[in-house]
Amino acid sequence: MLGLDALELARIQFAFTVSFHIIFPAITIGLASYLAVLEGMWLKTRNEAYRDLYHFWSKIFAVNFGMGVVSGLVMAYQFGTNWSFFSEFAGSITGPLLTYEVLTAFFLEAGFLG
């Protein structure tokens, strides 16, 4: 065995979760910009190819948004399960920061859905 204790395993688990999660917000924000350009080009030129591309990528955007929400919930849950003593000690500082991050990220990405 590698001789890893519980703290090291928790860190590895959280590193994997964060690495997996960050893919989805990055793609969501990039796709939102691309979708805005596609819709603008369709409104300007009335070329149906832009509209078709927009509809194709908007489905991928919606799935990606859902995956980001789910992986973000898992990440927040790990704070409480893996580092409950740290959360109890530093909760008055990390709690508002996590709340702000969740609200801004969720509403920003949900705004891109509309």
TrEMBL record:
Keywords: Cell membrane, Electron transport, Heme, Iron, Membrane, Metal-binding, Oxidoreductase, Transmembrane, Transmembrane helix, Transport
EC number: 1.10.3.-
Family annotation (InterPro entries): Cyt-d_ubiquinol_oxidase_su_1
Membrane topology: Multi-pass membrane protein
Gene: cydA_3
Chief localization: membrane
GO MF term set: electron transfer activity; heme binding; metal ion binding; oxidoreductase activity, acting on diphenols and related substances as donors, oxygen as acceptor
Organism: Serratia plymuthica
Spans traversing the lipid bilayer: 12-35, 56-77, 89-108
GO CC terms, sorted: cytochrome complex; plasma membrane
Subcellular location: Cell membrane
The organism's place on the tree of life at top rank: Bacteria
Pfam families registered for this protein in UniProt: Cyt_bd_oxida_I
Family from the record: Belongs to the cytochrome ubiquinol oxidase subunit 1 family.
GO biological process: aerobic electron transport chain
Name of the protein in question: Cytochrome d ubiquinol oxidase subunit 1
Biological classification of the source: Bacteria, Pseudomonadati, Pseudomonadota, Gammaproteobacteria, Enterobacterales
Listed PANTHER family: CYTOCHROME BD MENAQUINOL OXIDASE SUBUNIT I-RELATED, CYTOCHROME D UBIQUINOL OXIDASE
